[in-house]
Amino acid sequence: MSTVQAILSGALIGGMFAVMAVGLSLTWGMLRIINLAHFGMILLGAYLTFQIATSWGIDPLLTLVVTVPLMFVLGALLQWAFDRFGVAELNSLLVSFGILIIVIQTVSNVWSADFQRMTGEVNPYATGSLSLGRLVFPAPTLLAFGTAVVLVGAAHVVLQRTFAGRALRAFEQDRSVASAFGIDHRRLSMVLAGASGATAAVAGMLFALSNALTPSTPFEWFGIVFAVVILGGIGQILGTLVAGVLVGTLSALVSVLWSPSLAPFVLFSAIILALLFRPQGLFTQGAAR
Amino acid sequence: MIRRGLAGFVVVFAVLAALPFVREEIGLPVFYLTLASTVLFWIAQATSWNILSGYSGYFSFGQGAFVGLGAYTTAVLTGRRGVDFFWTLPISAALGVILALAVGALAFRLRSFRGEIFALLTLAVPFILASLARVNEGIDGGQGVVVSIPEFPEQIGLFPDFLFLLNLTIATAAVAAAFAIQNSRFGWALASIRDAEDVAEGLGVATYRYKMMAIAVNGLIGSVSGSVFALQIGFVTVEGVFGLAIPLFVIVMSVLGGRSHWLGPVIGAVVIVTMQDRLADAGYEGWRLIILGAILAILVVVAPEGLQVRLQQRPWISLGAFAGVVGVLAVLRVWGEPLDWFAAGMVAAAVAALWPARRRRAVPAGAAHARAAPVETSTESLSIERPRPVLGDVVVEIDEVARLFGGVRALDGVTVGIRAGELVGLVGPNGSGKTTLVNLLSGAIAPTRGRIVVGGQDIRGLQPHRVAHIGVTRTYQIPRPFDSMTVLDNVAMAIMFGRESRSLVDARRAAGRQLDLVGLGHRGDAKPAEINLHERQLLEMARAVAAGPTVLLLDEALAGLNPVEIDQAVRVVRRIHDAGITIVIVEHLLRVVNQLATRVVVLDRGSVLADGEPQAVMRNPEVVRAYLGKHAHA
């Protein structure tokens, strides 16, 4: 029974990893920017959720009204800078690593390195749960999963159906041709980067709902989130959701059957195998080129 | 050159090694040696990282894996098993090499592996080791391991003196190794991998082997230095050694110092460690990582080549800034202690070196020159009918070859024999499989079915560098020179690693002759970025010829040239052919093919449509139809 419970909870938590990964995957796939600063934005989103909910005493979900626009602007600004200085691929990895370190240290200077957690009064979701028979699902994980489904679904529809989405996909496949057809890549990239910043704000809020915060948490996300991005296929958002559920289930299963400390080992071994045998992602059809 | 340099390292080592023995006489506080130990540790780590990631361009986030492996080896063996400290050093060296080779064997296996995927893969390795260490009670079990101070010779006064000597030995060895590698074939091979990996492979560089060697050296130095690190910190924890601080530091140091020169990481380590120490001392603990992150983010954009290159360009300004700041602070004596002055001076020198210069880059000397001087000095006339070369045995046998990409048939049932001394024009409409055939012949891809035999040897499944050594080299449609090397060294690379491997000195001498053959002799000292497209295409040919092929594949070597340049290039191709090299040329311009080729092979939709004398092939109605459309000949 506990195994079934673990698998289901893991799958739901996987939703949060998918929300964390979707922005990273999009900017990597579409803009060729591996934005480690994305983790910094998630961290910042989580801390802002904590701070605003605590000091104003409002529902944590409502903090999104502040954090989402803020992160949108931050993401777009960052993209503007990347574009302005011609930073892409490997260099973007280095530059954004530097930015991530700055964010982490700043957060630590502002909120201290101690754990911070929203109290039960401001965070009604922490204690809520849904019971189905003997299975119990905590409200935050349900919320995370629901958000993931909505977010990924919406992003998928936008990319497939709208003009901007088509333009972006054209841009991904061949930049110069897309530009020649009059696609304003600068504005589009900034909107996309802003949107993935907004997903970081959402991911941060979801994380803050059920976890205590400390500045070094991004390093713990690294492995899982990159696993989700790579397994799902870089730039493939539906793949991200599936991979998130897969990764969540796998680590929950390993934690229950062996030991929580071994979860990273199994997870990273899975990434390495995936990189070696299906570098284009588990669910992508055909060769990458 | 290498021997003199290494002698220099011995002298530097001897002088520094004397410090612990005379420190009381010259009044040097022990604190300075402790700081120096930290500097030397990071010099060893950054240098070790740089040999793989700087020289070959494969960025690793996994330096912590080697440090942690070394630290835990020493901590566990000395503490729990009672092994003597000195015996743990060779053990962690061996383990480091084994781990490095295992990672390399996984990561370098796929030829199409991209750099950023390698970076993420190496990011995973320390996490895996960390979780193993955390779970395994025999290693750590989540508690951390205390490292006891080992016994050391009495002559060495205090423990910090001993640590200093250990770190000094390892750091000197590491830097000397980096120096020797940079100035040897190994270093040249790594540089060519960084610039253009598949081109290097195609010219005969055994890229896989050199990458494995580089990662092995990385692992060896990283883990031995990690062993000493265990002594230095006294208490080894999973977070302390496998965390991201170590890769962050080595990357920032190498990026700051410069990644293509052995001195770069040394400079970077000295500047960063001193600055971090001073900031902590002044109570700005919370700013250390912010400054580090900012340095990384800004430098990658502003000065990706690093301090070492900049200092070389402005030695006097930087030295002046350093001396000025240190001098003023020393005279005024209103702030800090000598170490602060030193740190401030270094920051001033770094800023002076990195300050963006007003771009005075007029037209590079070469570009103007090239337009003025006639590239071609030959008097050979274009239109003279040359005697047909004597044809030899079949050198290339393409037998029923097919190549599929997924479901797409790029080539199917292609059978062509090429005899020594032929100059085969390979033509066909777009998408007919010409480039696929070139890729198959050079070993870049393997045929799905069929056999390709070159000089009696089946090349199926051989690495491209082996195929180059058998005698097939190629040029690329879009020239892909090694950007960090001069035009002359581009050619010397091909000679060094070509069919008969030669020393650098020999290769450079011979490279001049190869450049003369294509009429580029006067551009030898230019960097590839400074020459025009035509010259780059000639360089591409010179380089491919320099590897000593029996068969040369020219993939649209004349694309994008103007008529005058085409005539010159045609003469060069003839001259290469006259030198006894069999040539296969892919070309769209039928005029050129008619002029040059002794035989024409026409491909259409993956199979051979016609094969024979140029004139006869061009009159073949099917060829005309393939080229001009169904109804053209009617």
Would you spell out the secondary-structure blueprint of this structure?
The complex is a heterodimer of chains A (289) and B (634).
Chain A lengths: L1 H30 L5 H20 L7 H21 L4 H23 L17 E4 L2 E4 H23 L1 H11 L1 H6 L4 H26 L6 H16 L4 H21 L5 H15 L12
Antiparallel strand pairs in A: 1-2
Helix pairs in contact in A: 1-5, 1-8, 1-9, 1-10, 2-3, 2-4, 2-8, 2-9, 3-8, 5-6, 5-8, 5-10, 9-10, 9-11, 10-11
Chain B lengths: L1 H25 L3 H27 L6 H19 L3 H23 L7 H21 L9 E2 L12 H24 L2 H18 L4 H27 L1 E2 L1 H5 L2 H13 L5 H19 L6 H15 L4 H7 L1 H18 L5 H17 L10 H8 L21 E12 L2 E12 L3 E5 L6 H8 L7 E6 L2 E2 L5 H7 L1 E3 L12 H11 L6 H15 L14 H14 L4 E5 L7 H16 L3 E5 L3 H7 L2 E6 L2 E6 L1 H6 L1 H8 L6
Parallel strand pairs in B: 5-10, 5-11, 8-9, 9-10
Antiparallel strand pairs in B: 1-2, 3-4, 3-6, 6-7, 11-12
Helix pairs in contact in B: 1-6, 2-6, 2-7, 2-8, 2-10, 2-11, 3-4, 3-5, 3-8, 4-8, 6-8, 7-8, 7-18, 7-19, 10-11, 10-12, 11-15, 13-15, 14-15, 19-20, 19-21, 20-21, 21-22
How helix-rich are the residues of chain A, as a percent range? over 70%
Largest interface: A-B, 41 and 46 residues
| Helix segment tally of chain B | 25
Tell me the strand percentage band of chain B: 5-15%
Radius of gyration of chain B equals 30 Å
Mean pLDDT of chain A: 83
Output the CATH class name of chain A.
Mainly Alpha
Q: Main β-sheet of chain A: number of strands, strand sense, barrel status?
A: 2 strands, antiparallel
Mean pLDDT across all amino acids of chain B: 84
> What portion of the residues of chain A fall into strands of 2 or more residues?
under 5%
Structural class per helix/strand content of chain B?
A: alpha/beta
